[in-house]
Design brief:
Blueprint (H helix, E strand, L loop, with lengths): L9 H11 L5 E7 L11 H5 L4 E6 L6 H12 L4 E5 L7 H12 L10 E7 L5 H9 L18 E5 L2 E5 L11 H10 L9 H15 L1 H8 L9 H11 L11 H14 L10 H32 L13
Parallel strand pairs: 1-2, 1-4, 2-3, 4-6
Antiparallel strand pairs: 5-6
Helix pairs in contact: 6-7, 7-9, 7-10, 9-10
The chain binds guanosine-5',3'-tetraphosphate.
The site of guanosine-5',3'-tetraphosphate has 20 residues, from helix 5.
Length: 319
């Protein structure tokens, strides 16, 4: 079952971006370096009218450095776009941000023509932490629940350099099923919107193929050819003592362990998607979404015909 969530502050944030965007020079999108495709808001380019974009791959300390380099090349190759990697251990992230924004909007950044930057990102991507570091104080509250950043706020990053914050935002519908699982694994989606076991199985299914060495090192498990995600989750549960009566495995507990150890980086530096994989998932997702739309349109037409709101077409095949 694909994951769906209640998009929370989406409408408020959308409105805030639309109202502000006219006077913005660069839009910074904070991405999770462990899922740089899935954490990118597919609505953002439309909302910002194609303004120059800086993609910041945040939490790069948790991500696979080889894959982060691939994603930076990918985003840097897009028109009007630059990309940099960041993480909370960097004491002066402002320098990298200011430089990248200046490269995107070279005529801005003076007192007469200040650089006006909007920053957005999904919940839990580390926006409050970054802003706290930028301002040198606890300007915004951080926390582990999705959507802690609530109010839009302006921050002076340097002389003639202003940053507007926006609340953490998810979009209403995901067309790439894998993105839902990756967002849930990363902590961007509230706990009530997904089943831990389902997310852990999807995660393990990917890790068996992409990072078998990390799984073996962390859980001391065998990974014989053809092992399934279910078998591996059971194995991990057994190894970690997540056992119920009569030797049954507590799969919920095992799933929580896997998700927690992925999120915290205990499992190792992992990136759940490459640019090529994400592009393939997107093609499939768009195809399924188009089919879904056709089905929806058909049933709407059938409904209108039933209630005689529109005439029956001569050739029903064409509806
Ligand atoms: P948000 O405003 O985008 O919602 O995210 P926030 O800054 O609250 O960060 C969410 C969690 O991610 C926090 O952890 C924060 O410490 C952690 N984090 C932020 N940036 C980085 C980074 O670059 N690397 C790593 N490894 N972690 C990062 P938490 O456990 O929820 O809170 P806390 O225990 O740190 O207070």
């Amino acid at each position: 079952m694909a994951i769906q969530w209640f998009p929370g502050h989406m409408h408020l944030t959308k409105k805030a971006i639309q109202e502000r965007i006219k006077e913005i020079d660069v839009v910074i999108e904070l991405l999770d370096a462990r899922l740089p495709g899935s954490s990118a808001n597919p609505m953002l380019a439309g909302l910002t009218g194609g303004k120059p974009a800086l993609k910041v791959l945040n939490k790069q300390d948790l991500a696979d450095p080889v894959r982060t380099a691939q994603w930076l090349v990918h985003y840097n190759s897009l028109p009007g776009t630059r990309a940099i990697g960041l993480d909370a251990s960097m004491s002066t992230p402002a320098k990298a941000l200011v430089e990248a924004c200046r490269a995107l909007a070279p005529s801005r950044g003076s007192m007469v023509k200040p650089m006006r930057v909007l920053i957005c990102g999904i919940p839990n991507v580390g926006k409050s932490t970054l802003i706290n570091t930028l301002t040198g104080k606890r300007a915004t509250k951080t926390g582990d629940e999705a959507g802690v950043t609530k109010l839009e706020q302006r921050i002076v990053l340097a002389d003639g350099f202003y940053l507007w914050d926006t609340p953490g935002m998810l979009w209403p519908r995901i067309i790439v099923a894998k993105s839902g699982y990756n967002l849930a694994a990363s902590g961007a989606i509230g706990r009530n919107a997904f089943e831990e076991e389902e997310v852990a199985l999807e995660l393990l299914d990917y890790l068996i193929k992409a990072y078998p060495g990390l799984l073996q090192a962390r859980y001391k498990v065998e990974l014989p050819p053809g092992i399934t995600d279910e078998q591996l989750l059971e194995d991990i549960g057994r190894k970690r003592g997540a056992v119920l009566t009569k030797g049954r495995i507590n799969l919920q507990k095992a799933a929580e362990i896997v998700i927690y150890e992925f999120r915290s980086g205990t499992l190792g530096r992992i990136t759940l998607e490459t640019p090529e994989e994400f592009a393939e998932w997107l093609v499939v997702g768009k195809k399924l979404d188009a089919e879904r739309q056709v089905k929806k349109d058909r049933s709407e037409t059938a409904r209108l015909i039933k209630f005689k709101k529109i005439p029956r077409p001569e050739n029903p095949q064409e509806t």
